[in-house]
Design brief:
Blueprint: H1 2-23, E1 27-29, E2 36-38, E3 55-57
Antiparallel strand pairs: 1-2, 1-3
The structure holds zinc ion.
Length: 60
C-alpha cells in the first residue's frame, strides 16, 4: 500500500517537472538590487527601483 503511494507521487512529480520544462520559465533580475521576476515579455527592461538593465538569470 505504501509502495503504491510512492509510485503515484513519483509520477506526479515527473509530470509536474515536464510541465515546467515545456513552459521554459525564465527569470530576469537586477544585478544591483538582486531582485528577480519572471520574464513575461521579450524585452527585459530596466529595474523599477534603480534603473539598471535587467539581466537573464540562469535557471537553477
Ligand atoms: Zn535595481
Amino acid at each position: 500500500m505504501f509502495e503504491q503511494a510512492v509510485q503515484v507521487s513519483e509520477a506526479f512529480r515527473q509530470s509536474a517537472h515536464q510541465m515546467q520544462g515545456s513552459l521554459h520559465m525564465a527569470l530576469k533580475g537586477c544585478p544591483e538590487c538582486r531582485t528577480t521576476q519572471m520574464i513575461a515579455s521579450p524585452a527585459l527592461g530596466v529595474c523599477e527601483d534603480c534603473g539598471s538593465n535587467l539581466v537573464v538569470l540562469p535557471r537553477e
